[in-house]
Amino acid sequence: MTQESAPPRALYLQAKQHVKNRILSGEWQPGDAIPSENQLVRSLGMSRMTVNRALRELTGEGYIERISGVGSFVAQRKAQSNLLKIANIADEIEARGHRYRCEVLHLGREPASLQVATALSIATGSSVAHVCCVHYEEGVPVQYEDRWVNPAIVPDFADQHFDDSLQPSVYLLNSIPAEEIEHVVDATLPTPDEAAALNIEASEPCLELMRRTWSRSQVVTWVRFLHPSSRYRLGSRFEADRFNRSS
Is the pTM of this model over 0.70? Predict the structure, then answer.
């Protein structure tokens, strides 16, 4: 069977795989220009429509970036965090062979606002521990962490020294193992201070992950993670049968 007599689906998948193989093998590095649509049409012997569909899907999947009037380029691959567990961002970054750094912007105690008190199930005005920090991958800020902790459960949280080797989430898990976790994901815009901390424009959309954890039926912490959508993604992979059996 020749290429032109093969099913159309097989053709565009072949075109996608051709480009992906060169990206995943490292032959084409992030930022490199890839062959134009016309060049791929000639080299692969496929129609323009087939190649265009392959490139559109690769763009949607984050493998390439297409700039109108300029060309297509290998995209910087986004980091990804697992939504089904409490992930340690330092471990995720180092597992990719990248350098991790944590910068603490604020750590102390303050009265709980109505929003914080509601999230922690405590009285408004109660003293809570509060930490703000930025997590870096290869020197690029990828996550802004804004966390409140119930001091009745973790009294010495605000007295810790958090840095590259000890992150707030690691300290909490080592102190009070989580028995229940709640994740809420939303799209939002950063505040001016958050945009400055993440070194992005205030108009750049961000992925917002809000997490609460419980231990012995008490809320331990409420945290808001902010990720620039151009640098990070949230997702999970799991066995569907396991969830079907438990549903």
Answer: no
- As to burial, measured by CB atoms within 10 angstroms (0-12 exposed, 13-18 middle, 19+ buried), residue 200 is buried
Which CATH entry fits the domain spanning 3-74: 1.10.600.10, 3.30.420.280, 1.10.10.10, 3.20.20.70?
1.10.10.10
The neighbouring-strand residues paired with 166 are: 163
CA end-to-end distance (rounded Å), the chain? 45
Residue environment code for 60-88, b if the CB has 16+ CB neighbours within 10 A, otherwise e: eeebbbeeeeeebbbbeebbbbeeeebeb
- The percent of the chain in helix, strand and coil, each rounded to the nearest 5, is 30, 35, 35
CA dist., res. 134 & res. 163, Å (int): 10
pLDDT digits (tens, 9 = 90+) for 140-168: 899 999 999 999 999 999 999 999 889 99
The domain locations on the chain are: 3-74, 79-235
Architecture in CATH of 79-235: 3-Layer(aba) Sandwich (3.40)
pLDDT tens digit string along 87-104? 678 888 887 788 999 999
> What mean pLDDT is reported for the chain?
85
151 with 127: CB under 8 angstroms? yes
